[in-house]
Amino acid sequence: ETGVTQTPRHLVMGMTNKKSLKCEQHLGHNAMYWYKQSAKKPLELMFVYNFKEQTENNSVPSRFSPECPNSSHLFLHLHTLQPEDSALYLCASSLGLTSYEQYFGPGTRLTVT
Amino acid sequence: GQQLNQSPQSMFIQEGEDVSMNCTSSSIFNTWLWYKQDPGEGPVLLIALYKAGELTSNGRLTAQFGITRKDSFLNISASIPSDVGIYFCAGQLMSGAGSYQLTFGKGTKLSVIP
User: Fold this and answer.
1) What average pLDDT does this structure show over B28-40?
2) Cβ-nearest to B106 among A4, A41, A109
3) Does any CB of chain A come closer than 8 Å to the CB of residue B48?
4) φ, ψ at B83 (rounded to 5°)
């Protein structure tokens, strides 16, 4: 138990569906991150939020839309995804941007059909 | 972007043996982190290193921050079956754009034969 929870753990969606991934951290951290993990590739940073403000968007397609209503919650809204978007989506948090110890949630295994 | 070369990619060892893996880069890093990921779970932080030459232990795990600041090593002593998983290194660059972000290696998959 790392103090970071993610729901759902598994998601299967069609290319025309709209769904959302949720992340919640109980660590009192101020920075939150979305990563994509695909087989045989390093973790890819997607978005960074610090005190609810987005500080980084690593050229992520607009079919992925993040939302951070407060420092404890992070969402990833998905619409019109492609099969190549199938991956494990990991949420992480850290005390702040300059605190490099990031704590990860268990991930959401996403399959796009 | 910056790359971390993590090796070996995979290893099969006998229970009780010691394990060694490493990460190298052409860039200088300020921080090195080692994570372990079990199947179906997220990475769990094992050890964090902040100073060149630093040697830090966590139970049977020992990690070192290389003197050149371009590499790091993780050793596991007397391996047991629950050591099975994928081990990732991650580094935080010394400077440059996005230097507060972590760069991850591709992982070392460890299998332990009972």
Assistant:
1) 94
2) A41
3) yes
4) -75, -10
Q: What is the predicted pLDDT for the residue at B13? A: 95
The residues facing B110 across adjacent strands are B11, B85
Task: Extract the tokens encoding A23.
Answer: 């992340």
Contacts of B59 by beta carbon, 8 Å cutoff, 6+ apart: none
The values of phi and psi at residue B104, to 5°, are -110, 145
Overall average pLDDT of the A20-39 stretch: 96
Which residues sit opposite B45 in a β-bridge? B35
Nearest Cα residue to B83 out of B106, B107, B113: B113
Instruction: Please judge whether B42 and A104 are an interchain contact, meaning their C-beta atoms are less than 8 angstroms apart.
Output: yes
Q: Give pLDDT tens digits for B73-114.
A: 999 999 999 999 999 999 998 776 666 789 999 999 999 998
For the residues of chain B, what is the DSSP string, one character each? Answer: ----EEE-SEEEEETT--EEEEEE-SS-EEEEEEEEE-TTS--EEEEEE-STT-EEEETTEEEEE-TTSSEEEEEE-S--GGG-EEEEEEEEESSSTTTTSEEE---EEEEEE-
